[in-house]
Design brief:
heterodimer, A: alpha+beta, three-stranded antiparallel sheet, globular, B: alpha+beta, six-stranded mixed beta barrel
């Protein structure tokens, strides 16, 4: 079954979160800012949808969270990648590349 | 690792719901704050910045809701909310809820108690290591009609030595007692003679000292015994010094080598002393060792040996013995059966019948509760329709309904658990001694598990009816109807169906109970052949010192004489075994002048003193009773019972004929002249037809163990001290073996039946009561709904009786349908209880007519009562109430 657009989006969002967290632990708003910067606004996602995604990843055990005081002296929930998440990121990235390549191929031959 | 964390997160979400919510709030608030600050830093005005931050975030509530769903515990939260809601609903309707809970508790409680017994007796393995390897060996003799009888010791020894599939084989006497002298005080003890390997075969060890040893089967130095924990405590003050000490057991010095633990019980047999058989090796070759059958034999199979294979080998050995010892074993068969099966054989069927009965009872209870819920669902139908119309999922409503019935059933189950706990104890305490062949009946994990399953199943079962009914409803229709006429129609069909089922099940139960009551009535009115009222029976066992017939006879002569002189005593006699206690022993016999192959078997023997028949009011049918003249040296005589006279002397006068108790008479045979014929006595128990029996006079035959029978002029209890002191005067070392009223013995022979009947009657009564409540409830609903119609009809001039008939007629339809179905069910079901019936056919017409008739009458009253109330309503009030 081909993924529906929302599935593509959800998968993409998860991948972006993992990728972002691979650099350093971050809180929710920070992640949303980073994604927005790197995607240069192409991915128009509600900032709020980040939170169910974070929850999903945490239940999968790919990320972990803890409450910490931020640089501006605010208590924030920081997320960080787990070892399992790091492996998942690798696998998901490969999947994504394969997927893109196949779609490219199809689009190219058409 | 990941899964653990995920489980931890879920648990936290469930149990620290507040904290999880707060954290989510904090996280979102921080996000919005930071975003607002960022926008402000870019120059966006304060008020606008907040708005744009919210916009970029999307719906805060939706995110929170998505987060809550994402926790994966939503269904649990919903279930808790549903249960809370259900509890609130139940509280709003205390009468209805109370009725439902009590109904369920009765059903579940009864099931708990019976299942505890089924579990203890049928399901739980015997409390020995590898119980599946224990088998019971018994003798079968087709010629004598023996099945699973006690075996002759010599046969036991041959089985033990020759069958290789047996690891070891032990034997024990199934009953018996002896007088134990403890520091000079005589005390009666229940004694079993067991072979030395008895405990080893069962795989148990004493808590103190040592078990008996295999070699102690045979005579060695001193006699040895192991005593029970109870005797050790009661008689020896739990003194460990008794180990190795010697006490006189029936006058024989016996060394106590061990104390069994309290928990040891073999087939719920109460034993104080296990005495090693200590057989003299010389007896093995003697014929009586193979002729007298008095040992129960239990074998342990070798690991890996199946009972079937062992039986095949066993049968080969049995056939060898038939050839080797034709005089005793020519037709002697034998039987091997797993020990558990042997022990539970008699109670298995009654227990399963009781279990089925309580199952039916629970179904009736479910029907009632379903009806209550149905009535409640009707009251809330508009609410449900409204919720459906407003978009609530049918699945959600169904779940709510199921949660409600499960909550109800849980409350019923908990209450039932308490009832069941009490019922289990009552059952264990009230069962006639030894009926349930286990040491204890109690609730265990399996019983609790069964209750849980039962409770859930009932919740689903009675929740189903209202559910099916309510989810089929189209909301628009319900809301449009407004008036309840249309819904009433549909509801009634469901309710009627349930009540029809209840009545049918109640009838099945009641017919079953009715048949048992009839059987029991028949048994109670059976002619026992004597008058047991006011007769005291006391067992007296003379110790080893009384070693000749003369001394034994002298003792019993003196005893009778002195007891008869006691105030309040009308008469006194002795016999080996009292009536209802079985016979002393059985033997073959031959009538003088008949061909050699015309012998009889299985004639019961009892030695009785000359006053025996007079004391018990056994009628003399021909000839004479025994007299003082019938003594050693005079002509050997016997008195036979009417069955024997009818069977072996049809159309002849047996008086004066001679009989010998040998199969093939020879020169050593003692020929006894029949001097009288007496009426038949149910010697073995009320339910067992009198068997052929012969009596011999105490003057010519005597036994060391005899039963004193005393007929009282007034109360028998008042006689006991007198009898006791007479015995003590004659011999202070004697203890009374058994002191019982003959009437009790008579009742005890049918106590098991009485117990099962009482239980079944109680269950059937409860079932009928519940079914009647069901009928009443449905008719009350119907009447209420037709109150308005009745008011109008009354206003138009209808008579109250006509209006009542409207309801009663409907009740009649329901009840008659239920009875019809029930009759069909009962016709099938009662075949299963045939074994419990006594001289009543499973399709006894009287029961099959009276029980439904009685049930119909009471059911009609139950439907008539609400009708009366409805028809009496004042027309004006009813119409105004609309």
């Amino acid at each position: 079954m081909p993924p529906t657009p929302s599935d593509v989006l959800r998968g993409t969002l998860d991948l972006l979160i993992l990728k972002t967290l691979a650099l350093e632990p971050m809180h929710g708003w920070g992640i949303s800012q980073r994604i927005e910067q790197v995607s240069r606004g192409v991915l128009d996602v509600n900032q709020g949808s980040l939170y169910p995604a974070l929850q999903r990843l945490e239940l999968k055990g790919w990320i972990d969270s803890e409450w910490r005081t931020s640089a501006h002296n605010r208590r924030a929930k920081y997320y960080r990648l787990t070892a399992q998440g790091r492996r998942a990121l690798g696998a998901e990235t490969d999947n994504w590349r394969r997927y893109v390549a196949v779609v490219e191929d199809i689009l190219g031959t058409a | 690792m990941g899964t653990w964390r995920s489980v931890a997160l879920r648990l936290r979400a469930l149990f620290r719901r507040g904290a999880t919510e707060r954290e989510l709030d904090d996280e979102i608030r921080l996000h919005l704050d930071l975003e607002t600050e960022r926008l402000r830093a870019q120059g966006v005005p304060s008020a606008d910045a907040r708005r744009r931050a919210l916009l970029a975030f999307g719906g805060v509530e939706q995110v929170k809701e998505a987060h809550r769903d994402g926790r994966g515990v939503r269904w649990i939260e919903d279930a808790i909310a549903d249960a809370r809601f259900a509890l609130r609903t139940l509280r709003h309707n205390p009468v209805l809820s109370g009725a439902a809970i009590i109904t369920l508790a009765l059903g579940i409680g009864a099931n708990t108690a019976i299942f505890s017994a089924v579990n203890a007796v049928i399901l739980r393995p015997l409390p020995f290591p590898h119980p599946e390897r224990l088998v019971m060996l018994s003798e079968d003799n087709p010629e004598k009609g023996w099945h699973r009888e006690t075996a002759a010791p010599a046969n036991y020894l041959d089985w033990k030595e020759r069958v290789r599939a047996f690891e070891d084989v032990a034997a024990y006497t199934p009953g018996g007692g002896a007088t134990l002298a403890i520091r000079g005080t005589p005390r009666r003890a229940r004694v079993r003679s067991v072979t030395g390997n008895y405990f080893a075969v069962l795989g148990v060890r004493p808590e103190l000292g040592r078990p008996l040893e295999a070699g102690e089967t045979w005579k060695g130095g001193t006699d040895v015994a192991v005593i029970s924990h109870e005797l050790w405590q009661d008689a020896f003050g739990a003194d460990t010094a008794i180990l190795g000490s010697t006490v006189p057991l029936d006058g024989t010095p016996t060394q106590i080598v061990g104390v069994m633990s309290r928990s040891f019980s073999f087939a719920a047999d109460s034993v104080d002393v296990w005495r090693a058989t200590g057989w003299d090796p010389q007896v093995r070759a003697q014929v009586f060792f193979r002729r007298a059958h008095y040992m129960r034999v239990v074998a342990r199979l070798k690991p890996g040996a199946t009972p079937e294979a062992a039986d095949a080998e066993f049968q080969t050995v049995v056939r060898q013995l038939q050839v080797e010892y034709p005089a005793t074993n020519k037709v002697m068969g034998a039987d091997l059966v797993p020990l558990h099966e042997f022990l539970i054989g008699d109670v298995r069927r009654p227990l399963l019948i009781l279990q089925a009965a309580v199952g039916l009872l629970l179904l009736i209870a479910c029907g009632n509760v379903a009806n209550l819920l149905l009535a409640q669902a009707l009251g809330r139908e508009r609410e449900a329709a409204l919720r459906l119309a407003l978009g609530a999922g049918r699945a959600r409503l169904a779940r709510q309904a199921i949660t409600e019935s499960l909550t109800l059933s849980s409350l019923g189950g908990l209450t039932g658990l308490v009832l069941g706990w009490w019922g289990t104890r009552a059952l264990a305490a009230l069962q006639p001694g030894g009926m349930l062949p286990v040491a204890s009946v109690r609730m265990d994990l399996r019983v609790l598990g069964a209750i849980f399953v039962l409770t859930t199943a009932t919740g689903l079962l009675f929740g189903l009816a209202p559910l099916l009914w309510s989810t089929r409803r189209v909301p628009a229709e319900v809301l449009k109807e407004g008036d309840r006429a249309g819904t009433g129609q549909r509801l009634r069909r469901w309710a009627d169906t349930l009540v029809v089922g209840e009545v049918a099940l109640a009838l099945v139960l009641t017919v079953g109970a009715g048949l048992l009551v009839r059987s029991f009535w028949r048994l109670e009115h059976v002619e026992p052949g004597l008058d047991a009222r006011g007769v005291l029976a006391v067992g007296i066992d003379l110790p080893a010192g009384y070693d000749s017939a003369a001394t034994q006879r002298a003792f019993f002569d003196g005893l009778r004489e002195r007891v008869r002189a006691l105030p309040g005593v009308a008469d006194a006699a002795v016999a080996i075994v009292p009536p209802f206690g079985g016979v002393g022993y059985t033997s073959d016999f031959h009538v003088a002048g008949r061909p050699a192959n015309d012998y009889g078997t299985e004639v019961g023997h009892d030695y009785v003193s000359m006053e025996y028949f007079r004391t018990l009011h056994v009628p003399l049918l021909a000839g004479r009773f025994f007299t003082v003249a019938d003594r050693t040296g005079s002509v050997p005589v016997t008195i036979i019972n009417a069955v024997l006279a009818r069977k072996y002397f049809p159309g002849q006068d047996p008086v004066g004929r001679r009989i010998t108790f040998d199969k093939f008479p020879d020169s050593t045979s003692v020929w006894r002249t029949i001097v009288g014929v007496v009426g038949d006595v149910r010697q073995t128990g009320l339910e067992i037809e009198p068997q052929i029996e012969a009596y011999e006079p105490l003057g010519q035959q005597v036994n060391s163990y005899m039963t004193l029978l005393v007929r009282a002029q007034g109360s028998i209890a008042a006689l006991v001290p007198g009898v006791r002191s007479v015995v003590a005067q004659l011999d202070p070392s004697l203890a009374l073996a058994q002191v019982q009223s003959l009437e009790r013995l008579q009742a005890r022979s049918i106590a098991g039946r009485r117990f099962i009947m009482t239980l079944l009657v109680a269950f059937a009564g409860t079932g009928v009561l519940l079914a009647l409540v069901g009928v009443y409830g449905v008719m009350a609903q119907l009447s209420r709904r037709r109150t308005r119609e009745m008011g109008i009809r009354r206003a138009l001039g209808a008579r109250a009786s006509q209006l009542q008939w409207l309801v009663v007629r409907h009740g009649l339809q329901v009840v008659v349908t239920g009875l019809g179905l029930g009759l069909a069910g009962a016709l099938l079901a009662t075949r299963a209880i045939r074994v419990l019936l006594y001289e009543v056919p499973p399709r006894d017409p009287a029961t099959f007519l009276t029980v439904p008739a009685a049930l119909a009458c009471t059911a009609l009253i139950a439907s008539w009562l609400p009708a009366v109330r409805a028809s009496r309503a004042e027309p004006m009030e009813v119409l105004r109430a609309e």
